[in-house]
Amino acid sequence: MVFPSLFFILVTVSAVLCAVGFYRFIWFLSVGYGLAVAGCGAAMLIAALMQGGAGLAYLLLCLLFIVYGCRLGLFLLLRELKNAAYKKTLDAQTKPVPFFVQAAMWVLLAFLYPVQVSPVMYRLTNGMAESSDAFVWIGAVVMLLGIVVEATADKQKSAQKKTDPHMAATKGLFQLCRCPNYFGEILVWTGSLISGISALQGWQWAIALLGYVCIVAIMVSGAKRLEVRQNRNYGHLQAYRDYVEKTPILIPFVPIYHLVKEEN
Questions:
Q1: DSSP 8-class letter at 24
Q2: What's the sign of the alpha-carbon dihedral 81, 83, 89, 92?
Q3: Residue 14 near residue 110 (C-beta atoms within 8 A)
Q4: What is the pLDDT of residues 154-183, one digit of tens each?
Q5: How many other CB atoms are there within 10 angstroms of residue 251's CB atom?
Q6: Which candidate among 47, 78, 131, 244 keeps its CA 20 to 30 Å from the CA of 230?
């Protein structure tokens, strides 16, 4: 059985799951994002099992999407529900969003999330799900590493903020870069792209690269917004200023320390 319409199945799954954003707009990009990626992973796994003959590496890639999406979505939801300070900040920043803007965001993301998982999707639709070459395994390992890094960073940040809510997280993975959770996210999607190197054909490369560039751009934008917020909240602390001057903001060991211009 071949699934030429698998992409549109993924779009439908993504649209249903990220529709939680109509309840709270930010959920289009947070809780709904995690649910949509997990749903796409589950849909690709089911399609592969129905087709038969899918290799262990391909099944692992699908499972990693499910684990990644469920963990992220659950973490973001629990953070909002349990962390009163975070919820207060979120509520203060939340403004009424016109319905047509919500609808446009919903449609855009319903397509973007399947585009992000497209390197793995095209491996199945191109009849290469049984292939377990080096690129597939390397991609799976990088994805797994990204999930571990992101989950560990989220846990470390939560623990440090409980101990000292008036200072940015600076220990553990935060000694390597100031946004290790975003770095972990980039690793996940880098692994996804690597896994498709031996399967992508022609214009499929454009689709896969579009998804990758978009998520990296979103992570860079997120790091930039975080820097602005942290500068505002902790910029008066000498310990924070010393920390940011010696710790890369997004990629460990890459000496890029600022994404926003420093105010004189």
A1: S
A2: positive
A3: yes
A4: 999 999 999 998 999 999 999 999 999 999
A5: 16
A6: 78
